[in-house]
Amino acid sequence: MSASRAEPGGRLDVVLVKAGLTKIRYPAELLADDGTRITVRAPWAGGATRDFGFVRFEPGDVFTEHYWRDRWYSVKEVRDARGALKGWYCDVTRPATRLGVEVVVEDLDLDLWRSADGRDIRRLDEDEFAASGLAERDPEAAAAALAALDELEVLAREDGFGALLT
């Protein structure tokens, strides 16, 4: 792997930006980059256990993350340390950019969760999105973000992201 380009199996840093500041940066293994979708695998980067009430992200969990350069979201398959599927956590973001060995995404607050069995599909953080002021600052981006959340919900209900991720 060169300093400016990661090859499959190489290391990338995922950089999640919110309100112009880096929210989190973590290393990931590059699985694929077809020019449109970037797929990486990374351990839970939150450190300690985070209990959302409907799912717990814990040390040992593994995320297979899919980022698109032409879509306003990312989809993250979440498995526990034994490999059992917990579900999918989706972030509404601006389209991803890859800068050398970094995948950079701007978080737009909206999220969606789909449990492994598909019985629990929930839209998250709509209050944070409303409070962010994005609709006033950038109405086009806000409309794209809401459309992305709607699209994710439809995909989650239809086939659990099967067609999207194959």
List the helices and strands and how they pair.
Blueprint: E1 11-18, E2 21-33, E3 37-43, E4 50-51, E5 56-57, E6 62-68, E7 73-79, E8 85-93, E9 97-99, E10 102-115, E11 121-124, H1 126-132, H2 134-137, H3 139-158, H4 162-165
Parallel strand pairs: 1-10
Antiparallel strand pairs: 1-2, 2-3, 3-6, 4-5, 6-7, 7-8, 8-10, 9-10, 10-11
Structure description:
With 166 residues, the chain is an alpha+beta fold. The protein has a single domain (11-165), classed as FomD barrel-like fold (Beta Barrel). Helix content is 21%, strand content 46%. The protein is built from four helices and eleven strands; from the N terminus they run βββββββββββαααα. It has a seven-stranded mixed beta barrel. The protein has a two-stranded antiparallel ribbon with strand order 4-5. The two termini are 26 Å apart. The model has no long low-confidence stretch (mean pLDDT 93).
